[in-house]
Structure formats: C-alpha cells, structure tokens
Design a protein that fits this description.
- The structure is a single chain.
- The protein has 444 residues and is of the alpha+beta class.
- It is built from 16 helices and 15 strands.
- The chain has helices spanning 9-12, 34-40, 55-58, 67-74, 87-90, 137-140, 161-168, 199-211, 213-220, 265-275, 283-287, 299-321, 346-357, 374-385, 402-413, 430-440, and strands at 42-44, 98-102, 110-112, 121-127, 134-135, 153-154, 233-240, 334-335, 342-343, 362-363, 370-371, 390-391, 398-399, 418-419, 426-427.
- The strands form six sheets. A five-stranded mixed sheet has the order 1-2-3-7-4. A two-stranded antiparallel ribbon has the order 5-6. A two-stranded antiparallel ribbon has the order 8-9.
- The longest helix has 23 residues, at 299-321.
- The two termini are 25 Å apart.
- Mean pLDDT is 44; it is low at 1-329.
- The protein binds a DNA duplex (15 and 15 nucleotides) through helix 14, helix 15 and helix 16.
DNA sequence: CTGGGGAAGGGGCCC
DNA sequence: TGGGCCCCTTCCCCA
C-alpha cells in the first residue's frame, strides 16, 4: 500500500510515545463534518477530487491503480500475478465522474457537477446502504433458517443496458424502486429525460466502485443495516450530469460485482443469473421496504436482485432439504451456490459467497475501501489510526498485525523455511520461492 | 536493471 | 464475533 507515500493521514496517526498498548476498538471517528456533508455533497467517482487530508488512499485513486479500484474496473482481482494486469486495462478509464457539489446549500440543494455538457437532470432520492447494493442482511439472513443473519448481504449488480433503459426511463421513475417507495428515506427514484441515460443506474454503477462508502459506512462499519434513515438519506437532489462519459452498465466484467470475484466466478455468476430471470419478488422486500433500498431502479435489477436473494433462498432450501436430515449443527449442510462449498450456517454461506459476488458491505469511513467482512474493516482502520499493538522484541519495531510481526521476526531469526525443490535455495517467504522457481525452473 | 528482502495492505479460512 | 493464520500482492529499499 505504498507505504512510503503514506505521509498523509496514515503517518499522522502515530502511536504516542510511551503507550505500549493501543486501544483498537476506538471507532476512529474523524468527524470532519461528514455528518452533514454526506447529505450535501456527492462525489461519484473519486478519481481526483479527494480531500488531500485523506492521504492514505488518496494516491491509490489517482491513477496509480489501486488494488481496490483496479480490481473493480479491470476485474483482475485474485488473478495470479502471472496474469499481470494489462497496462491498457489499468489506464484511466473513461469513467463517469459525477462530482456533485452543493449549490444551494440546502438539503434539497441543486447539485451541479463539474462540467457542463450533455446535461442530465435526475431527481433522485437516494438511500444507499452499501456500495455493494446491500440488501438488508437482517432480512436475508432470516427465514426458515435459525442461523443469525450475516452482517451484509448483497445482490449482484448485473444489468443489461437495454433492459435498464426500458425499465428506468420515463414513467418508470416512480416505479424505480417500489420496494422502498413507502419509506421516504429509502426511495430511489430516477427521473429520466427522453434519450437520457438512466443516471440513477449509472450512479449505482459507480456505487459499485465504492463511491457510496460515505453513505454506507455509517451503517456497514457497524455491521448494522437496520439503522435506516441515518446519514444515508440524500434528499431530493437535482443532479446535472454532463460529459460524454459512457453511461453504460451492462454485464461487463468491469462492473460486475465488486471486481473481487475470483477467477471466472463472475462469468459463472453472470451465467447463473441470466438463467433464472423469472423469479418472483422475494418476500423480504415486502417485509421491509428499506431492505431493498439499494435495489436498482429497474425491473432487471430487481430480477437480478431477486436472484441473489434467491441464492439465499437456495441456501435456505438446502438447509431445509439437505439439512433436514441432520441434527448436527456443526455439519456443513449449507452450500455455496457458486462453488458448492459447505458451511455449517447460512450466514457463513452468505459471507463466503461474497468471494464470488464481490459483495463488500463494510466501508471505511475514512477512505474508499470496502470489505467483505467486518474484521477486514476493523483491521484496515488501523491504517488510519496507526494502531500497532504488536512490537518486535528484537528491534522494537511495531506492527499493526500479528502476522506481520511474525513475518518480521524472520528478519531476526533468519528463518527461511521455503526451499527450492530444484536447487535447494531457501527463501524466507513463499513468494520468493515461487518467483525463483518461475524464473529459474519454469514452475510455479 | 535486476533480484532479494522488508513492510504493509487486503482476502480468505479456520477455530 | 473476533483472533490467528496464511496467502497474495504491492511498494519500496538496497546490494
């Protein structure tokens, strides 16, 4: 993570001298007025308009090819390094940059983006509970299953342009998200002009890239999505969108999921999702309109939304079917719909399936990073807080993670447990051995 | 320039 | 739920 460049926020959080133990559970709350700015400023696609104060991830989003954004956009996440990212794919893409700044200064401010071409007026009331279009895990996890719900569920934002157009244009805005229509804080309406692209969806396209962290973080970082209406409501804003930015959101890999799906899972997922498009609306949407606040404002998205929900149903069905014969709670009777891996609890299935779907419900309040699990977020936040509870007894060097300390200890011990099976050369880390073998023995 | 190595970040799994 | 652990990757430094 470009440690040498972490001279901004990261380095500023240096452990006070004399403190041997860090308190890690501090919520890392840097106010910065975000509580209000959230409702007034929307920056979709944070390519270069970040607050310099957030230096930690800043450089990452400035074309350096952050792991996160790069993954999302290029879909190379999880790829072995043999398949190095093509420079052309890592090049700045014609991403739709929606830098929406408050004009009127009111909650219902007219927001204006930075450039002024091809205006596109969109009236939308937004409630985004997660950049991954999280549905309510409290609901997803419910049902016939006894296992507690996961802290973040997601549907896969796979949409097809043509279908999206059909369902989001014109009179569709009132029906954009019927699931949240009852709740003024969670409706998501998109008013489209003729010929205009469905901005609302494009907005969500960028949401999938993490731009809604600021809305979702207050929810997801707590692992509680029931706090509906807090922070994340953006009151009726008129968005003027310009630029020739390609407002496309098809099933392209670069927009599929979070980009952290592994291998061909996205292709696989895409295929799967395209298979059953006739699923009925999931029941939980009716139970709680808020839970679907992240649903895309079109029928296709709804279908896809349902399909992922159905994946949970599927897990539940498997729980009922397969698991009905077993009374052993430890038995892995819940299976991933993608890889068929077994788990003892549907919640675990759901969490695991984020590997395939790229769902990352947990957002850092200080940067654009998102995580599939709460602990990932918590661990990440030490980047901002500078918490380094683990110190090397040999050199007093401190680390934020124990495994890093463990790795560091090899420096002192000279341990090189990884030996080349061909030449016997030893390495301290497996990666060196792998590289060595690749270069010298054509293996790996 | 190359390769080894240190540090640090995220992903994922297991307990 | 969280910690431990491992893996992978990236950045950086240095010989």
């Amino acid at each position: 993570m470009a440690r040498g460049q972490l001279t901004g926020g990261h380095r500023s959080f240096v452990k006070p001298v004399g403190h041997n133990t860090w308190i890690d559970d501090q919520p890392d709350t840097v106010d910065e007025g975000s509580g209000t700015s959230i409702q007034h400023v929307i920056v979709i696609e944070s390519a270069d308009a970040e607050d310099p104060g957030h230096g930690v991830k800043q450089h990452r989003s400035e074309g350096e090819g952050p792991r996160q954004s790069g993954d999302i956009q290029t879909g190379v996440a999880g790829a072995p390094y043999e398949t190095m990212e093509d420079p052309t794919t890592s090049a700045p893409q014609p991403r739709t940059r929606l830098s929406i700044t408050e004009v009127s200064g009111r909650p219902d401010a007219v927001l204006k983006s930075e450039t002024d071409t091809k205006p596109l007026t969109v009236t939308q009331r937004l409630l985004h509970r997660g950049s991954d279009h999280i549905s309510d895990p409290e609901r997803l996890g419910q049902g016939p299953l006894s296992c507690p719900p996961a802290s973040g569920s997601e549907y896969l934002p796979v949409f097809h342009q043509s279908q999206r157009m059909v369902h989001s244009r014109g009179d569709g805005y009132g029906d954009a998200l019927d699931t949240g229509g009852d709740d003024p804080s969670c409706s998501y309406t998109t008013e489209m002009g003729p010929g205009n692209m469905p901005l609302g969806l494009e907005t969500q396209t960028d949401l999938s890239k993490g731009d809604w962290n600021q809305y979702s973080s207050s929810l997801h970082s707590e692992g509680c999505l029931d706090k509906k209406g807090e922070v994340i409501v953006i009151d009726e804003v008129t968005v003027k969108m310009e630029g020739d930015a390609p407002l496309t959101w098809n099933a392209d890999k670069t927009h599929l999921g979070e980009g952290h799906s592994q291998g061909n899972t996205r292709d696989f997922l895409e295929t799967k999702i395209n298979v059953a498009t006739h699923s009925h609306l999931h029941a939980f949407r009716d139970r709680d309109s808020v839970s679907t606040s992240m649903a895309p404002s079109n029928s296709q998205g709804r279908i896809l939304f349902d399909q992922v929900l159905n994946s949970n149903d599927r897990a539940g069905a498997q729980a009922q079917g397969v698991g009905a014969t077993s009374g052993n709670s430890k038995e892995k009777r819940f299976f991933c719909m993608f890889c068929n891996k077994g788990f003892s609890c549907p919640q675990k299935v759901e969490i695991h399936q984020r590997v395939h779907t790229g769902g990352k419900p947990f957002s850092c309040t200080q940067c654009q990073m998102r995580f599939a699990q709460a602990r990932g977020l918590k661990r990440h936040q030490r980047v901002h807080t500078g918490v380094k509870p683990y110190s090397c007894p040999q050199c007093e060097k401190r680390f934020s993670r124990q495994d890093h300390l463990k790795m560091h200890l090899k420096v002192h011990t000279g341990e090189k447990p990884f030996a080349c099976m061909h030449c016997g050369k030893r390495f301290s880390e497996r990666r060196y051995l792998r590289i060595h073998q690749q270069k010298n023995h054509s293996t790996g």
